[in-house]
Amino acid sequence: MLLKYARTFFNNAMVYFNFAAKSLISKVMKNYISGTYLNQGYYVSFQPTLINKVWDVSDLSLLSLLSKADRTIGRLDMFSDYVPNVDLFISMHIVKEAIKSSSIEGTQTNIEEALMDKEDLSKEKRDDWTEVQNYIQAMNTAIKSLQKIPLSSRLLREVHKTLMSGVRGLHKQPGEFRRSQNWIGGTRPDNAVYVPPAHTEIPSLINDMEQFIHNPACDLPDLIKAALLHYQFEAIHPFNDGNGRTGRLLITLYLVSKGVISRPILYLSDFFEKHRSLYYEKIRSVQQLNDMTGWVKFFLEGVIETANNGTETLNKVLTLKQSYGEIVKTMGSKSANGLKLLDYLYQHPFVDTKQVASILSVSFPSASTLLKEMQGKGMLSEITGAQRGKKYVLKQYLQAYIS
């Protein structure tokens, strides 16, 4: 009944929003000039236009996408309110986001590997594993930091420092804006695919972004502002390495800081990776054709697809959890320990008998018996095939996030 009333309230609120949005955005991004190319001697760099200004936005197809994006993201946020222990599910979303975001940069780690202990992985996989763990830590730490400090260059530098700790790029000034020219593609700036602005321009460009984030006069809807911020950050490319990961984190941090989502539950890396070629094409079209409207539409399409997928995933996981709960209730005297173990497995889907004995404060034989019974009831899968040192995984739960 409570969910029914919540949906009614949400639908009424959306009707009001749609009317207000069409009144607010009678203005679009026509006459937008993305920037200029500056001669740096033997190469040219791209100087993006400042974004802290009044934007002229008026495209009916963009407004339609905006309305749909707001509905889908609102539905996802509302759904998360009704999911018990939603933080457990958010932690899995962050793991998946970390994997997808890092894979765009070439890191090859799957969700099973990301949730394993480092010592359980082969040595050649450990660097990729560390990059994913850094991403998870950077997101969690930044979300907590937002309670104390505003979204700012200081926070982004902290995020970057965490991302680059102990991994490839460690010696490329983690947590500091670059002090030299970088470029994308090619072997030198003069044959590169893209050359960002000179490092001397970074302070003023980042300051402009900060003002844009907090300027009430820039009354664009927050989803559009998030799209503009991500593009601008990528155009500036303020760090020597790790710009892509930091720029994707920026999207979620901005939406949480503005209350668009109450929890860090929307991530676009999966969409960007799925449409990687189109993602880069839309970014380049802004710089080469001044097509900011095309980029914003692509971004909003990503929000719609990702929010819908997120709602579907949460629904699958919630249904699965309810099913597990019913199964455990049939386990008699083992039910209490079964439920306690499940709560642990929702955050740490891989366990062995020794861990279970410690978690539940039971003997090794009791832990082994519980695991075998849960395996027999289809909740756990044993993944080593060994006689000793068996390791179990909550397989269907993981697959709900992967699919």
Based on the model shown, name its key terms.
403 residues, mainly alpha, Fic-like fold, Arc Repressor Mutant, subunit A, two-stranded antiparallel sheet, 16 helices, 59% helix, 4% strand
> Roughly what fraction of the amino acids lie in strands?
under 5%
| Count of domain modules | 2
Order of helices and strands: HEEHHHHHHHHHHHHEHHEEH
Instruction: Let me know the average pLDDT.
Output: 85
Distance between the termini: 30 Å
Quickly give the CATH architecture of the largest domain: Orthogonal Bundle
Number of strands: 5
Helicity level: 55-70%
Question: What's the arrangement of secondary structure elements?
Answer:
Layout (H helix, E strand, L loop, with lengths): L1 H23 L10 E5 L4 E5 L11 H22 L4 H19 L6 H4 L11 H20 L7 H11 L38 H13 L7 H15 L6 H15 L11 H6 L1 H14 L2 H37 L6 H11 L4 E3 H8 L3 H13 L4 E2 L8 E3 L1 H8 L1
Helix pairs in contact: 1-2, 2-12, 3-5, 5-6, 5-9, 6-9, 7-8, 8-9, 8-12, 11-12, 12-16, 14-15
Could you describe the 3D structure shown?
The chain is mainly alpha-helical and 403 residues long. The chain has two domains: 27-55 and 84-306, Fic-like fold, CATH 1.10.3290.10; 316-402, Winged helix-like DNA-binding domain superfamily/Winged helix DNA-binding domain (Arc Repressor Mutant, subunit A). Helix content is 59%, strand content 4%. It contains 16 helices and five strands. The strands form two sheets. A three-stranded antiparallel beta sheet has the order 3-5-4. Strands 1-2 form a two-stranded antiparallel sheet. Helix 12 (292-328) packs antiparallel against helix 16 (395-402). The protein is elongated and about 75 Å long. The two termini are 30 Å apart.
